[in-house]
Amino acid sequence: MAIINRIADLHDEITGWRRDFHENPELLYDVHRTAGIVEKKLKEFGCDEVVPGIGQTGVVAVIKGRKNGSGKVIGLRADMDALPIEEATNAPYKSKIPGKMHACGHDGHTAMLLGAAKYLAETRNFDGTAIIIFQPAEEGGGGGDAMVKDGLMERWGIQEVYGMHNMPGIPVGHFAVRKGPSMAAADRFIIDIEGKGGHGAMPHLCVDPVQAGFAIGLAMQTVVSRNVDPIESAVISITSVKAGEAFNVIPQTLRMLGTVRTFKPEVQDLVEARMKELAENVAKGMGCTAKVDYQRGYPVTFNHADQTDFAVKVAKAVVGDDKVDAETPPLMGAEDFSYMLNQRPGCYIFVGNGDTAACHHPAYDFDDSAIPAGTSYWAKLVETAMPT
Ligand code: NI
Q: What distance in angstroms lies between residue 334's CA and the mean position of ligand 1's atoms?
């Protein structure tokens, strides 16, 4: 394995940071302790600029290369937040905060990127600028989007952006990635149907929203089977239906909730448009009205072709050709780094976490032996993208 020697030397120090973050997990935007440590260390490393408070509690550092003639600016991003889960490991550095734990390895991501920042600030063996990005609120809070909205890309002139996540089930010292859609878009919807309530024995005097709801529910399933290209994938699941309380009353309204998962923005747009058309028009045909509140969640995590080829090349240089899977299948989970990839070309890669419990499981733990590969990947990515 072509781990950078200096990074191998930093392994114990980076492990110490990781375990400290693990003992002190924080949720969503409330990552004040973690962000404070990150900011302090980045300043100690001698970064050219360290700015806290981007996207509420995000931290950004600038490291200029020994040469700065290429004009290239590359962003590297890690996430800092934990999850509201009670930890069920026996680790000596187990969470000290009841009901909170680093069950997704963001402690490892933060520590590895800090390690890379230390190495890059020390060596500066590149021609250009590295922007080191630590984001809050990946776990459902849209912290990546908040940093983008705070002007992250424009303020530092970021041209390409890269992310990394550990993955249980992939051996330590291996990487996995794919071009194009890598993780799904996760949307939710609320459909409110209004009719005219009345006596259950006198339906002719009512307009029944329950029958309209049944018809809309069936019609929705034709979106995937009849409108979406059969080669593509999409899921529409109606997961909650509520209307009325009594045996003999036709209710005035019906509400249904559900989730939509897609992998391509054009499929997502199509599903949203067809759901609205069907719900509104089927309801109208039955004398009711329907309102669809379609709420977009995290967008599709889309890896750009050239940057993915580049990430594969860098990963292979670190761990060897046979330890990089460049065609790993897409996942139905969603990821907040997608907001950054919608702004700039880049790539989101998985680093192996070995045979551990799955992410978001109470027995999950980041594997510290993955640190040299992850940290070397970051360093080598900067040195290869911007050679001196
Ligand atoms: Ni995660």
A: 9
pLDDT digits (tens, 9 = 90+) for 133-164: 999 999 989 999 999 999 999 999 999 999 99
Task: Find the 104 Cα to ligand 1 centroid distance in Å.
Answer: 5
pTM: 0.87
Please give the sequence-ordered ranges of beta strands (E in DSSP) within 45-127, or none if there are none: 49-54, 58-64, 73-79
Residues 6+ apart with CB under 8 A from 337: 77, 79, 138, 144, 163, 301, 348
Outline which parts of the chain fall under CATH 3.30.70.360.
185-295
CATH assignment, 5-183+300-385: 3.40.630.10
Distance CA 388, CA 384 (A): 9
* C-alpha 165 to ligand 1 mean position (Å): 7
How many whole angstroms from 134 Cα to the centroid of ligand 1?
Answer: 13
Q: How far is the CA of 106 from the centre of ligand 1 (A)?
A: 6
Q: How far does the centroid of ligand 1 lie from the alpha carbon of residue 336, in Å?
A: 9
Per residue in 299-339, pLDDT tens? 999 999 999 999 999 999 999 999 999 999 999 889 999 99
CATH code reported for the domain at 185-295: 3.30.70.360
